[in-house]
Amino acid sequence: MTTDFKAALQRGLSAHDDATRAEREVDEVLDELSRQLTEVVGSNVSVRRGSVSRATPDLSWVIGAAGAFTPKEKYPALVAQGPRGEVPLCEFELARSGYPVNVAFGDQQYFPDDRASLEMALARMLEDPVVAGRIRQLATAALGRHAGGRRAAGRRAGEAEAGRLLDGVARALRAPPVSGP
Asked: Which residues contact 107 (CB under 8 A, 6 or more apart)?
């Protein structure tokens, strides 16, 4: 029996095309999320796929106790980036085929397998108090930069406004898509 390598390659090329389409779709969702977050904070904020370092959990306490270098591992993440820095939002990893996407934050983990379920998982992420707090921190830094030394009351008002707008972004991402004419 002879193996049909041509047919195998054709299946692989087709799978590659599907994965590329899925990755483009994920990037479109992240672009929309970035657009809405920019509206919320009043400053340019982008949400992108990236990687974040964290201490390796199994050896860091031993090496750290000795005062030596603490080893770090990188993990795929969704990162919000603004004019004054960036903050990690969640673990975020595409499968080799594009979908499912692993979205994990706190004790929640989602595996969206299409655009609609990805949007829902990202809306849930925005509702998480720790994630929303990180975005507020980024938004407050951006607002402070443009305000030129606001007083504390003004900053609190800006934080409250950013919080209300973040709630709107989460609601908009959960809303069903509007179909055209």
From this structure: none
